[in-house]
Amino acid sequence: EDIVAIAGRLMQQHQDLGIIHIVGPAHETDMQQAYAQELLADERRRVVIKGFVPDVYRYTGAADVVVSRASATVVAELAVQAIATILVPGRLADNHQVVNAKHLADRHVALNVAYGDREGLYEALDDLLRHEGKRKTLSDNLGAMGKPKAATELAQLLIANFTGRAG
After folding, report:
1. 72 contacts 32 by C-beta, under 8 angstroms
2. Which residues 6+ apart lie within 8 Å of 124 measured at CB?
3. How far apart are alpha carbons 46 and 38 in whole angstroms?
4. Least confident of 9-13, 74-78, 156-160
């Protein structure tokens, strides 16, 4: 909803901006209607709404900036791709996404915008879209945290510890 609310302003400021919004199957129709109400016809043509994509890495890999929740799995995937990222932590019972986002923002590897802070989200996105250097710094810093061979290394560690031999 926050992206929908700021999309028109962003598109007016950034004439080449396109938005791919992955919203979950349950929200696809509602989001299509929300964008239709908020955007002009030529702006709506620059928005693609997906309920579900099995290959999200293709979309994030093509993006200049990704806005995402702050789950550890998503952050790990974005780190391997080295994508400039704005994290908007979900409001979950244990607050782990807030902790993740703050930790990463404190280390200058992602930006952290509070859930529901539409103006903060607009300012962060506008700033990153205007400044390629800032995007590059964030993507480089996040990429430095990536562990592209983590699954293989973990499997080898498990095999070595449970069979008594290295893989």
Report:
1. no
2. 86, 111, 113
3. 13
4. 156-160
Query: Over the Cα atoms of the chain, what is R_g?
Result: 18
Output the DSSP codes for the chain.
Answer: -HHHHHHHHHHHH-TT--EEEE--GGGHHHHHHHHHHHS-HHHHTTEEEES--TTHHHHHHH-SEEEE---HHHHHHHHHHT-EEEE-----TT-HHHHHHHHHHHTTSSEE--TT-HHHHHHHHHHHHH-HHHHHHHHHHHHHH--TTHHHHHHHHHHHHHHSS--
Closest CA to 124 of 82, 88, 99, 98: 88
- Give residues with Cβ within 8 angstroms of 132, minimum separation 6: none
Tell me, what amino acid is at 133? G
> CB neighbours (10 Å) of residue 21?
19
Tell me the C-alpha distance between 160 and 167, whole Å.
Answer: 6
Contacts of 141 (CB under 8 A, 6+ apart): 107, 108, 109
What average pLDDT score do residues 21-44 get? 96
* pTM, rounded to two decimals: 0.88
At 26, list the tokens: 């349950």
Looking at residue 128, its amino acid is L
Q: What is the pLDDT of residue 164?
A: 62
